[in-house]
Amino acid sequence: MKGITTPKNIKLYLWICLVVVVPFLSVSAWTADFPQRKASANRSAKEGLGRHKVSLLKRMRGPGHEALANRLVKQFANKKIAANTLGKAKKDIQKNRTTVMGDHWYLQAYGDGTSARYHNFKYIESNLDRGRPVSERMSERELERLGRKFIKENLSDYIQLGPNESLVPSFTEFQIASLSEAIEGAPVQERVHANTVVFTRTVDNVDVLGPGSKVAVTFANDGNTVAFSFDWPEYDHTDKSQKVLPLSEIKKRGWNLSTVNLDSTDVQIKRFDCGYFDAGHKHDPDAYIQSGCVYHTIEHKIIDHALYNMGRKSGRVMRAVVDVIPAGEPVAPDRNWSQVMKMHGQPEQRVPAPQNPQKKES
Questions:
Q1: Across the chain, what does the average pLDDT equal?
Q2: Rounded to whole angstroms, what are the CA distances from 37 to 136, 163, 201?
Q3: Distances from the Cα of 65 to the Cαs of 56, 94, 113, 196, in angstroms?
Q4: Domain locations in the chain as residue ranges
């Protein structure tokens, strides 16, 4: 179906509006970790996953992306909050995604119907002049409280917990706009315009890494919810288990499987986390959720040595890279996990997740 503005178009439109309003404005994000995420990173750096074995999990299929989109649109059409689906809307159904577009909002559901995102783009746009100083941004405690309240009141049918599972806050993210006059030396004013809290899941006290098992809720400065997203399947806790390698062996795999040279002085390891890895709605439907460690790295490359030697800040490019290293033994097959396929001597296949419901076997 033609005639539907995509989220990419919306972002471009919003950017154009921002540029017209002020002489100079740039938008960036600033993040802060909750204690749970900091503790996970510290433990990972010292001992890897911190246990000798884990149970293998399976993602259970949802109702399909169109069914999920229809359900969310109907549910939020009755909401007297900023996160609503009021008014006329157009629907676009593709192979692995359903998009519903209203006059002030859009909603997308993905894959087998366990993942979706919503955004009220007009609410944020209409409140650009109400930015807060960075020092007055919402606190982590307040964002966690608001996020849990919204999930409980609006997403409880989708964000459900199985045995030995917990919903834990992971990090906050703040959208910050920098404004100044187009005059050399003019002071820069930074204002927070949106506040996001991201939750993750733990299974048997093991953190789930990757896009899966995540819920994000975004609030305007007045406390109204303006966006949310989730990728939250039900997990089948199987009777199969997997041995977890010690940290030294995981690092050896990292050196062999990483897409960057971890020993290079041009590569900085910014973050290292171990836990379960869930690739989200782009997962291999036949694969287990198994153990893995995630390397977040920055690779620096000098492209103009003359400029680089003059100031060290010019003449180079930086590339952010995320590598997920399998941490178990044996490694369970996963056609959408490039490092796993490399270990099995095969190329990544990128198998799409199924869209049809699947009943859990009794």
A1: 86
A2: 23, 21, 11
A3: 26, 9, 4, 24
A4: 7-33+61-233, 244-343
